[in-house]
Structure formats: structure tokens, C-alpha cells
Specification:
The chain contains four helices and eight strands, in the order ααααββββββββ. With 164 residues, it is an alpha+beta fold. It has an eight-stranded antiparallel β-sheet, with helices on one face.
């Protein structure tokens, strides 16, 4: 129960404190580029756009960008969806007297305390599931999932905290 409360407070604080950040909306742009590549005919592109609006592909892509990817981009300076397979970025951050190394590759963030490497974790996007996972101390927790039923946020026991 304590972990659930901590997760709810964390998500709430991130949502409230990061409402001013504006990112590149890479996932939404990829959906748009897909829509544009379907056909050279503007009529067909318009039909596909309306279909993806009612399914709601654009809405979910935008929500994931706003809730997760733009926040990550705001704090790290890069968006894992926008990276290519060969892109790699490494940065050092300091917080409350501790130094952390953040390594960013496509669909993955690895965060490790420099003086205590056992204190590390990763955020990994599983494309096949359209889900973000938190990997820590040999355990894996699904934290978000996007499906035709909407976006879901999970606690560490796999219980749905919120659905959008």
C-alpha cells in the first residue's frame, strides 16, 4: 500500500510541476509521418487521419508524449523515441550530494548512482507491448501501457492506478 501511495504522489507531483515543459512530441510526430506516408493522395491521408482520430491513435500518442516522453526530454535533454538505434548519450547529474550517471539510448534510460552502482535502475520501452517498464534490483515492473483500451498507469504490484 505504501508503494502505491508513493507512486501516486510521485506521478501527481510530476504532472503538477512539469506542466510548463514543452517537448518535441516525437511519438505524435511519428504517427503524423506514418499518416502522411500512407498515400500521396490528400483525400486518403485525410481519411486515415480521421480514422486514427476516432480510434484514438493521435490522442494516445499525444498523452504519452505529454505525460512521459516530454518530461523525460525536459529533464535529460533527449527523447528516447526520437533517437536512432545507434544514438547514445551519457550525462552526469548531482542531487543532494550524490552523483548519478544517466545513459540514454533508443527506448531506454539507465540511471546509476556513481558512488554506489548497486543503486541503479532502468526505464525501458517495450515496443511490442507499447509499455514502459522499470527495471531495478533484478525485478521488472510495468509502469505504463498503451493499448486500444487506453493508457494505463500501474503500481509496483501490477494494479491499475489510472486509465486514460
Amino acid at each position: 500500500m505504501r508503494k502505491t501511495i508513493i507512486l501516486i504522489v510521485l506521478v501527481s507531483l510530476l504532472t503538477l510541476t512539469m506542466s510548463g515543459c514543452f517537448g518535441s512530441f516525437s511519438l505524435t510526430r511519428k504517427v503524423y509521418d506514418f499518416n502522411r506516408s500512407v498515400s500521396g493522395e490528400k483525400f486518403v491521408q485525410s481519411l486515415v487521419m480521421w480514422a486514427m482520430f476516432f480510434i484514438p491513435v493521435y490522442e494516445f500518442a499525444g498523452l504519452i508524449d505529454v505525460v512521459l516522453l516530454n518530461l523525460i526530454e525536459f529533464w535529460t535533454g533527449s527523447n528516447p523515441i526520437a533517437m536512432s538505434d545507434t544514438d547514445f548519450e551519457q550525462r552526469i547529474y548531482a542531487h543532494e550530494g550524490k552523483s548519478y550517471e544517466v545513459t540514454t539510448t533508443r527506448n531506454r534510460y539507465d540511471i546509476s548512482e556513481i558512488d554506489n552502482p548497486e543503486n541503479s535502475f532502468s526505464f525501458v520501452f517495450e515496443v511490442a507491448e507499447s509499455a514502459w517498464y522499470l527495471h531495478s534490483q533484478g525485478q521488472s515492473f510495468k509502469i505504463t501501457e498503451d493499448s486500444e483500451n487506453g493508457l494505463k498507469l500501474f503500481d509496483f504490484e501490477g494494479i491499475v492506478l489510472a486509465s486514460f
